[in-house]
Amino acid sequence: MDARLDLDIAVDEIEKAVSPDLLLLFGSAAAGRMRADSDIDLAYYGGKPLSAYERFLLAQKLAGRLGREVDLVDLKEASTVMQMQILSEGHTLRCKDEDLDLRLRTQVYKMYAKLNEERSPVLRSIRERGSIYEA
């Protein structure tokens, strides 16, 4: 089974279960660095809310269909750093609302910039000390 077909299966299954506004591929698959033992990293935004358990079951169903592990991330529940990584490095597989996509990306980029400003003194102190621990 080729990689394109794998993604089509994943997109169809996630569409049936969640009907997200945005679906992205990220990680090694998006970067073109998949190996035989690589998992498939997928993130979605919007659509039907799933509990952590329901999301786990969907990821397991996808893993069974695709023959490899699947990490499935709800962007609404991910940290700002994780959201930024996914949105900046991931590839869009499906987008139902381009305005929503742009607003989401703008919001995440702003939150990430603010986070970096707020943690700048801490990171600078760690660099100066050469350790995260107080001397």
TrEMBL record:
Q: Which residues form the Polymerase beta nucleotidyltransferase domain?
A: 15-99
Instruction: Tell me the superkingdom of the source.
Output: Bacteria
Q: Which InterPro entries match?
A: NT_sf, Polbeta, TA_antitoxin_MntA
Annotated CDD domains: NT_KNTase_like
Kindly give the PANTHER family that the UniProt entry links to this protein. NUCLEOTIDYLTRANSFERASE, PROTEIN ADENYLYLTRANSFERASE MNTA
Name this polypeptide is given? Polymerase beta nucleotidyltransferase domain-containing protein
